[in-house]
Amino acid sequence: MKNVTDRTSNPFGMRPPCDRYVAGYGDANADFHVVGDHPGVHGGADSGVPFTNGAGLRLQRALVDAGLLASAGERPAVNRTFLSYLHMCVVEGTPTEREYVEMERFFDAELRAIAAHVLLPVGERATRHVIEQYTARSPTLADDVPGLHGTELLGSGFLVYPVRDPSEWTGDDRDRLVSALTDLQSTDFYREVDLGRFLPEGDSYRVR
């Protein structure tokens, strides 16, 4: 099944209850969904695109090398990838716990509309949320994001590849991520079910 929109920025018309926000950006039919925290962490308040400050661009460049983006920048050329935040509103400082809860429904609706096969939560908060909501694993795993960085977790209908915050990358963190995503794409990682057995002719009909 394909989505009916080809819009790159805010493809599903999200309208959160705030004056300034950084909407999701990318391929609405994405295989990979990169999930960040909020604009104050990885940028976008000026560009309107997630992951466009220094650390965010560092991640973008790694995703280019892994084949998930065609180019990096304030308007990255996407390739089967969608970028978004748990909390898309631009706020002073860090959102409160209540504000995260209020924005969760927008994030969840967009995530399920994109229906990517692989989730890449970036940083501790995003990783904890994705593990808690979209896997059957303990969210305490997010206590060690550096240890999880670039490794595979099986989720509830998703594969999850946690990503250490790019502002904290050291040593081979970048290369580990690029290698893991490159290796993943050489496998059949699609999370689909064939419903063709329910059709009169038994033709293949694959859905997420």
TrEMBL record:
Source organism, top-level taxon: Archaea
GO biological process: DNA repair
UniProt keyword Iron-sulfur, yes or no: yes
Protein name per Swiss-Prot or TrEMBL: Uracil-DNA glycosylase family protein
PANTHER family: TYPE-4 URACIL-DNA GLYCOSYLASE, TYPE-5 URACIL-DNA GLYCOSYLASE
Alphabetical list of SUPFAM superfamilies matching this protein: Uracil-DNA glycosylase-like
Gene Ontology molecular function, alphabetical: 4 iron, 4 sulfur cluster binding; deaminated base DNA N-glycosylase activity; metal ion binding
Signal peptide, first to last residue: none
Keywords from the named record: 4Fe-4S, DNA damage, DNA repair, Hydrolase, Iron, Iron-sulfur, Metal-binding
The organism's taxonomic lineage, starting at the top: Archaea, Methanobacteriati, Methanobacteriota, Stenosarchaea group, Halobacteria
Keyword Ubl conjugation found: no
Uracil-DNA glycosylase-like domain residues: 24-167
